[in-house]
Amino acid sequence: LLPLGAFIAAFIIGMVVWLSRRRLSPLGELQIAVRKHEFIVHYQPIVALRTGNCVGAEALVRWRRPDGSLVRPDLFVPLAEESGLIAAITDQIIALVVLDLKKLLVANRSLHIAINLSPADVRTARVLPVIEKALQHTGIQPRQIWLEATERGFVDVGSARSTVIRARELGHAVAIDDFGTGYSSLSHLEGLPLDALKIDKSFIDTIATDSATSSVTPHIIDMAKTLKLKIIAEGVETQAQVDYLMERDVDYGQGWLFAKPMPAAEFMAYCRRAGLP
Ligand code: C2E
Ligand code: CA
Ligand code: CA
Ligand code: CA
Question: EAL domain: from which residue to which, for each copy (predicted)?
Answer without folding.
Answer: 23-275
